[in-house]
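We include the pair:
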Amino acid sequence: MILTVTLNAALDITYRVPALTPHATHRVAEVRERPGGKGLNVARVLAALGHDAVVTGFAGGRTGAGLHDMLAPLPVRDALVPVSGTTRRTVAVVDGTTGDTTQLNEPGPTVTAGEWSAFLGAYDGLLKDADAVALCGSLPPGIHVGAYADLVRRARAAGVPVLLDTSGEPLRRGVAARPDLIKPNADELAHLTGAREPRRAVQDARRRGAHAVVGSLGAEGLLAATPEGLWQAAPPAPVTGNPTGAGDSAVAGLLSGLVEGLPWPERLARAVALSAATVLAPAAGEYDPAAYEDLLGRVTVTERSATG
């Protein structure tokens, strides 16, 4: 079983408009709603890849009830913990003319000390059956900034490989707890290390405590610093579409590859192909299976030197 943690789960709403114009009224051509938050997106992709996926985190209020309802028919197990506040919504507005996406993210419910304690008990219980765990996304109000570091340490104590995908101070503290893998984007890497050059940044992030670092370079793919070497994986050509969830699909590729014992080049190829196939999909947090199969064999994975 692979466990994904989404402390700030969401209802993802995607609007498609013919063209997005500031200060104008828009007629929405299409509306889609999906259970969202990074870890829930990861779990959906893991399930599509044939893995047993369990989601946990918090859910509350009307939006949280809707989240439970939407998860019920999906091939993932719902272990979200109740919270008195209301689960947030995220709104993606897709411009049909340019393909660009404008994202609006609510902050999420305030989590009490008692609710956090209840979550920790549930998390420790789920770790007993987990082959790996992904800690994903932002922290909701009320959760202390070192929360992910605490969850990393608990996973390590249970002998469960842990992937951390967050940003800012929660990432900095989480890295110090020595996760098995982190997957920051270029901006998150720069904030963590102070380095803008990707090769230097991923290696510096490893020195700060992560066992392996996979940096997301957007259209250029992924750059991985691992104990076995340094690799860059790139799609055969840039893709355009809705990027929402593309990074989460990459996490699912990396995590499934870890559990399956794949060598790093194969993990990276899977992650890049899934990410690109997600950009091409019509709904946030899903991937196009046909595009994934087509792209998988055409991703280029190149070993890099540590200094060149």
